[in-house]
């Protein structure tokens, strides 16, 4: 098997073509073979001219992973996931099957824009504190475990994105999940995002339980977002001459097609110097940096963007990662309220970039935390079976956070992923506790309990071996 042949496990985004990244496009271009669920193959069929494809339906994930590995004898292979491969995708299974034959050094995971962040950007939502990703499918996880996670997330006031909320044979779990939230909790139903038949419907928990005409719209191509305590709910538009652009984790190849197009046609681009350096080879415009605290900078950026709008000029205001995840995008949306339209362009989030580099630490339910200042909260989430991602971690916070985590639990600690000074340490919780880490601005991933470290990668099982046998 030629060692130069690679397996790319590629996230193609939620379905909207302009939300695919340059990195994903390059991986597909390099591949001789493309393997995936038939729906996802259909979404990218115009990219597959001259390539051999292999597709299958639901429940055949193991076969797709094995086929992708077998095809490496004859050329490089792309194994397609919708959204991001680490979010209920093929990253964990692909790595685990690769372990048995070719080794994980032949595998590269390409992160993608996930449905939940794409929905948030489309709706003008910014998460300020914490967020849980939970799948209601009990095919691989017993529902009593799912129920415990939903209950905990609701107790902690977290927003919850529910994947796989309802199917023909599984129609009661969503109503059960909603019981844990207040009847007036805002709920966003997003169906076929970025695809034909896209719908975004605002409701609340009580209406969603009693109104059958809404429930009937919910299927496996729907994401349900239950809004928690700490979100900013603004208003975003499909198009505008003022754009908030998520530029991903630092590598220009992680930019989406839409981000590149917006930056190319923007007359003015605003952002911190390090973000402007990231996109310097994409836009010929000189970026504009503002001084002051965060609120002052954002106010000045909006004022200049609005002035450009009055001259019919397009402008872009940059955020790192994805605008919906713990960014200052909400300040722009608040400034713009009742004044002008804003378009929010999703990006690859920091958690996706770190997860892809680390392996597959997040393929089960997981939670995002803005900071690591509440160790007890992180411990509770971990005990409930969540993988946990903490942003903006200081080295001196690692001790309190990891002290109550099982000592053999796999962890990844990262900083400046996809930048020149990239740092990534993969180890058990106990080894990370003993390491002499210094610095700030780390992203910490604590994998869920069914994870292990192999070849310096974190691999998480979703239950395929026990369900299907391989």
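Q: What amino acid sequence fits the structure above?
A:
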């Amino acid at each position: 098997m030629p060692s130069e042949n690679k397996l790319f496990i590629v996230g193609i985004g939620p379905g909207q073509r302009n939300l695919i990244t340059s990195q994903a496009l390059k991986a597909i271009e390099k591949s001789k073979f493309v393997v995936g669920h038939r729906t996802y193959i259909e979404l990218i069929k115009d990219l597959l001219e001259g390539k051999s494809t292999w597709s299958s339906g639901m429940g055949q994930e193991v076969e797709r992973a094995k086929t992708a590995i077998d095809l490496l004898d004859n050329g490089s292979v792309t194994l397609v996931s919708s959204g991001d491969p680490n979010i209920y995708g093929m990253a964990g299974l692909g790595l685990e099957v690769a372990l048995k034959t070719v080794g994980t050094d032949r595998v590269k995971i390409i992160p993608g824009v996930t449905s939940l962040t794409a929905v948030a950007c489309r709706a003008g939502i910014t998460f300020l504190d914490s967020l849980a990703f939970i799948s209601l499918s009990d095919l691989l996880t017993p529902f009593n475990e799912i129920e415990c996670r939903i209950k905990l997330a609701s107790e902690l006031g977290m927003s919850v994105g529910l994947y796989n909320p309802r199917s023909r044979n599984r129609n009661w779990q969503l109503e059960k999940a909603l019981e844990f939230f207040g009847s007036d909790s805002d709920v966003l139903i997003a169906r076929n995002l970025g695809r034909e038949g896209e719908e975004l419907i605002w409701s609340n928990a009580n209406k969603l339980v009693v109104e059958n005409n809404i429930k009937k719209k919910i299927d496996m191509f729907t994401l349900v977002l239950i809004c928690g305590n700490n979100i900013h709910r603004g208003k975003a538009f499909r198009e505008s001459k003022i754009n908030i652009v998520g530029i991903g984790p630092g590598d220009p190849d992680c930019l989406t097609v839409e981000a590149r197009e917006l930056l190319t046609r923007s007359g003015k681009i605003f952002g911190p110097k390090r973000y402007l350096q990231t996109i310097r080879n994409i836009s010929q415009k000189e970026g504009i940096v503002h001084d002051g605290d965060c609120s002052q900078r954002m106010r000045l950026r909006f004022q200049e963007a609005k002035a450009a709008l009055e001259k019919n000029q397009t402008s872009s205001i940059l955020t790192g990662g994805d605008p919906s995840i713990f960014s200052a995008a909400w300040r722009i949306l608040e400034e713009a309220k009742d004044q002008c339209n804003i378009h929010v362009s999703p990006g690859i989030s920091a958690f996706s970039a770190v997860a892809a580099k680390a392996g597959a630490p997040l393929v089960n339910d997981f939670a995002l935390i803005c900071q690591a200042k509440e160790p007890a909260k992180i411990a509770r989430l971990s005990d409930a079976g969540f993988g946990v991602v903490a942003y903006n971690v200081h080295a001196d916070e690692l001790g309190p956070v990891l002290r109550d985590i099982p000592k053999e639990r796999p962890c990844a600690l990262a900083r400046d992923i996809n930048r020149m000074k990239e740092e990534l340490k993969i180890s058990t919780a106990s080894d990370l506790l003993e390491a002499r880490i210094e610095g700030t601005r780390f992203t910490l991933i604590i994998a869920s309990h069914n994870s292990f470290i192999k070849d310096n990668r974190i691999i998480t099982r979703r239950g395929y071996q026990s369900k299907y046998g391989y």
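Q: And what stands out in the fold?
A: DSSP finds 18 helices and 24 strands in the chain.
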